[in-house]
């Protein structure tokens, strides 16, 4: 049974969002990392890139395949988690601690369109 | 969806199952890298029951196989195994396969699961000889035990001394008093064996090997089967081989005997050899970060010069490398090229395609 953290927002494509002081931290869920298997590379965007809700902003490469990561919300990427460049496996180890990007949200109400932990849990079942 | 006799064993071992060529097959049990390393360092066991087996029997069995197979069947010894291809008259590949010679009148062909029907149709259509061809794929199961400890583990179970079984030969023998065919073959670049038998016998063999091998063996899925064959540059049909790729372009000239008898496709291959192929499979090493994968386009400046056929971060060396079909003259060692990865150009350099050294036992 994969782990789901309460208080985060989720997408049906298995990304999570944590909102803190008006910024959104985005990562992939435990379910996603389990399905991918060992992650060997994370293609990171650049800071100041625009993230668009529903559009791909990063790609995660497992041993077997590449998967797009879709942005749950729209905004400017203000910070990229550089640790993932040399240690992509951190996402396998703790997918909720190791966010991929920090985004300055353009429209805070977008968050209401995302899934709650309870709603996301139903998708994973 | 078809299931092999080991389906329940895979579920019990927590395998992640996928549809492969119409079979529910294990892609990974624990992790691809762990399973990969087990095969390189100890022993790994694969369910390969989905592979196809055709029997060829009759006074002209040898003539039939010789006519359809690129390698030289006539000089084969009894109990020898030979790798090669079936080709179309165009020189493109129907499939790559193993041929087992029981005697002049009796052969077994082992073909890829994804090509069983196509291969059987092709073989049947070209059977103008005095021999019968039967598709036994549904009646035979198969496991492969691969790795440096494979001999030690399996030798405890067989009534035949496997230390006397040379590479690419086979023997009929018994495990637990049941008939099996064991060949010293495999597709991982390691020493190892492939065991063919009836379904219930294979279920027993699987369990016996796990019990005998204990911590020295683990079940391995299709995921690491692909990374293992890739590291030693063994081709996969659908990637390095297809109806549009000739064995010479794939670098498999060693399995194409142009100086022996006739076989379908030979004329085209002889001409290709004479004039050189216009492209060939090479190794690429990625100089930028990322992974390059099957289907990605390869460029020299702005000219499209080829396509990646398989790419991985090599579990054994940690380098990101790929096999790619590249037009000449961009196939030369150390040529700098780029690969289009999701719209971004990443730098690669042409290198030797043997990413890892095979360790077969002779």
Account of the 3D structure:
The complex is a heterodimer of chains A (125) and B (362). With 125 residues, chain A is an alpha+beta fold. Chain A has one domain (9-124): OB fold (Dihydrolipoamide Acetyltransferase, E2P), CATH 2.40.50.100. Chain A has four helices and nine strands. In chain A, strands 1-2-3-9-8-5 form a six-stranded antiparallel beta sheet. Chain A has a three-stranded antiparallel beta sheet with strand order 4-6-7. In chain A, a hairpin with a 2-residue loop joins strand 2 and strand 3 (23-28). The longest helix of chain A has 8 residues, at 117-124. The radius of gyration of chain A is 13 Å and the shape is globular. Chain B is α+β, with helices and mostly antiparallel strands. Chain B has three domains: 2-48 and 140-231, 2-Layer Sandwich (Gyrase A, domain 2); 53-136, Aminomethyltransferase beta-barrel domains (Alpha-Beta Plaits, 2-Layer Sandwich); 278-351, Aminomethyltransferase beta-barrel domains (Elongation Factor Tu (Ef-tu), domain 3, Beta Barrel), CATH 2.40.30.110. Helix content of chain B is 21%, strand content 34%. Chain B contains eight helices and 20 strands. Chain B has helices spanning 7-12, 32-41, 61-68, 116-125, 150-155, 199-213, 222-231, 266-275; strands at residues 2-3, 16-20, 23-28, 43-47, 52-57, 81-87, 93-103, 106-111, 132-135, 141-146, 170-175, 178-183, 192-197, 217-219, 279-286, 297-300, 303-313, 320-327, 336-341, 344-351. In chain B, the strands form four sheets. Chain B has a six-stranded mixed beta sheet, with helices on both faces. In chain B, strands 15-18-17-16-19-20 form a six-stranded antiparallel beta barrel. In chain B, helix 2 (32-41) crosses helix 7 (222-231). Chain B starts with a strand and ends in an 11-residue tail after the last strand.
